[in-house]
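## retry 2 of 3
previous attempt timed out at serialization; input unchanged, resubmitting
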Amino acid sequence: MVAEVPTPRRGPGQVLIKLTAAGMNPMDRTLASGDWRPMRATFPMVLGADGAGVIDTVGDGTARFSAGDHVFGQLLIAPLGSAGTYAEYVAVTEDAPLARVPDGLGLVVAAALPTRVPAEIPEQFTEPLGEIVSRLRTTDPTTAATVLDEARAIHDGALATITSAESRAVSLQSTVSIAATLVVAGGALLVDPTKIHDRSWRIVLLSALGIVLLCLIGCAWRALAVTGRMFQFEQPGPERIFLRARLTGPSAQTFRAAELLRAAGVATEIGAVKVGLLRSAAWWLWWALRMLVLFTVLLVLCVATESTGQAHASATAGSKTGAAGVTRGRSSRGAATDQRSGSTPAAAP
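## retry succeeded, writing output
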């Protein structure tokens, strides 16, 4: 729905961007459907995460950008919908994921740059907790609250990756168990000589089904590793819990944000392992499907070959029966002629 909303007001440390173009990110559809919930939302929710434009005005204390700068970035910022790029203006802090547009690059092209698929999941927040706390230290309550919201979103997103991988692995295990049962039942039918008469065809079809079964076993093995492999999460000790109780205000928020980011770093590594195992299971399933298609083709050829052979055998048997009937008819007519003529066969000497 398109609607008029007030132009956002920038505060201290924020920049107001007049957007020129917005990138179409596949994530936008997920956000619009409400299926992505790691980050709380605000309404009316303005969609869009990728965009490029010109800095219109800057707030007090802003030093990173100046009015008139051409910038681009991916503004997936909590609360969700507060910095949507499907709008004319957007106000964000100068620490938001923004960058100046390189010279010679248009704003329309720059708006599409954040939409990419990384080659691999990078390591993040793997440094010690104390170092993360020192890097997040701030005395501004608004900044501390924003950092804590973003840390929760990153942490929940990392856990969602693990949960999604395990859920898909469980579904894959159920699918593979059903498919393996059907393959074994099909193999039992092929062993029966009354179903497939040609021994060579039985061997070929059983071999194809055996390869399908092996691929399904490989798929199940990797899927079980996704749910069965255990990882050790870091648990806060008594000293850290007591330290939380002593902290107040922005210090407490940034400390909690640091803990969430450290846990998110561990969860990201675990999620990468589980996603890799799930992709391996999908590879085995892909080969099982290819071999199943090959088995289907072979089965059709087998049925066609045996049907042709049976039809040919039936035609040959019919020809022989017809020839025998004609011979018997001729012999009967010859005997009847001899009887009418009164002749008798000559006795052998």
